[in-house]
Amino acid sequence: ETGVTQTPRHLVMGMTNKKSLKCEQHLGHNAMYWYKQSAKKPLELMFVYSLEERVENNSVPSRFSPECPNSSHLFLHLHTLQPEDSALYLCASSQDAYGGANVLTFGAGSRLTVL
Amino acid sequence: GQNIDQPTEMTATEGAIVQINCTYQTSGFNGLFWYQQHAGEAPTFLSYNVLDGLEEKGRFSSFLSRSKGYSYLLLKELQMKDSASYLCAATDSNYQLIWGAGTKLIIKP
C-alpha cells in the first residue's frame, strides 16, 4: 500500500462507547496530523506529531486521546463522545511539521457518527 | 484574528473557465496552498504559491498577490471530473496552516 490509509472508513458509536481510529502512512514522513472536518467549516487541526512527539494540541477535549507509537502509525482514541463530535476525521502526514512548502498527504478519512 | 474567505459554492459549464477566489488575513504569511477534495475522498495537493504572480500547471493555474492578501485558482477547459471542493490554506509566520471552508464547484454539461 502507498500513501495514507485510515481505518475504519465509517464508524457509528454511542456516547458511552470507546473506539479508536487508526492511521498509517507509507511515505517515510516525519510528521502526522489529526484534523476534524465538519460540513461547511474550515479544517480544524486537532493534534500534530513530529518524530513521534506531540508538538501541537489545539485545545481538544480530553475525550479525544491521540497516540503515536512510531512515525508510521497514529491513533485517535475516542471515549464518551458527544453528538457534536460527529464529523469526518482526517489523518495527514508531511515530510516535516513546519517550514516551507510543507505539503500534506491526507487519508480518505473516517466518517464518525455519534448517537 | 486569522481568517480565510472563499465562496461557498460555484457553478460552471463543462469546457468553460472558472476562477475561485481566496482572500486571507494571517499573522505573517509564508505561502498559500490549494487542495482539491472530491466527495468522500482525501484532499489532494494542487498548488503552492509563495511569490507574487501566476503559477501554471496544465489546466490549473494559481495566482498570488501578497500585498492584497489575495489568491485565485483558475481552472480551464473544465471537465466533469473537476466537480469537487477546493480548499484554500495560508501559512502564517509560525508555519501554521489557516484553512478556508472550501468552495464546492459544480460542473454542468
Short description, anyone?
The complex is a heterodimer of chains A (115) and B (109). With 115 residues, chain A is mainly β.
- What is the overall shape of chain B? globular
Largest sheet of chain A, described in full? 7 strands, mixed
Largest sheet of chain B: 6 strands, mixed
Principal-axis shape of chain A equals globular
What is the chains' assembly state? heterodimer
Give the proportion of residues in helices of chain A: under 10%
* Approximate strand percentage of chain A: over 45%
Return residue spans of chain B where pLDDT drops below 50 for at least 5 consecutive residues: none
Radius of gyration of chain A: 13 Å
Number of helices of chain A: 0
Largest protein interface, residues of each chain: A-B, 19 and 26 residues
Residue-averaged pLDDT of chain A: 92
Calculate Rg of chain B over CA atoms.
13 Å
Q: How many beta strands in the DSSP annotation of chain B?
A: 11
DSSP strand count of chain A: 11
Which spans of chain A have pLDDT < 50 for at least 5 consecutive residues? none
Q: What secondary-structure arrangement, pairings included, does this model have?
A:
The complex is a heterodimer of chains A (115) and B (109).
Chain A: E1 4-7, E2 10-13, E3 18-25, E4 31-37, E5 44-50, E6 53-57, E7 64-70, E8 73-79, E9 87-94, E10 105-106, E11 110-114
Parallel strand pairs in A: 2-11
Antiparallel strand pairs in A: 1-3, 3-8, 4-5, 4-9, 5-6, 7-8, 9-10, 9-11
Chain B: E1 3-5, E2 9-13, E3 18-25, E4 31-37, E5 44-49, E6 53-57, E7 60-65, E8 70-75, E9 84-91, E10 97-99, E11 103-108
Parallel strand pairs in B: 2-11
Antiparallel strand pairs in B: 1-3, 3-8, 4-5, 4-9, 6-7, 7-8, 9-10, 9-11
Provide a descriptive summary of the structure in words:
The complex is a heterodimer of chains A (115) and B (109). Chain A has 115 residues and is an all-beta fold. Helix content of chain A is 0%, strand content 56%. Chain A is built from no helices and 11 strands. Chain A has strands at 4-7, 10-13, 18-25, 31-37, 44-50, 53-57, 64-70, 73-79, 87-94, 105-106, 110-114. In chain A, strands 2, 4, 5, 6, 9, 10 and 11 form a 7-stranded mixed beta sheet that branches. In chain A, strands 1-3-8-7 form a 4-stranded antiparallel beta sheet, with no helix packed on it. In chain A, strand 7 and strand 8 form a beta hairpin. The model of chain A has no long low-confidence stretch (mean pLDDT 92). Helix content of chain B is 0%, strand content 58%. Chain B has strands at 3-5, 9-13, 18-25, 31-37, 44-49, 53-57, 60-65, 70-75, 84-91, 97-99, 103-108. Chain B is globular. Chain B starts with a strand and ends with a strand. Chain A binds chain B through residues 4, 40-43, 45, 90, 98-109, and chain B through 4, 8, 30-31, 33, 35, 40-45, 48, 50, 87, 89, 91, 94-102.
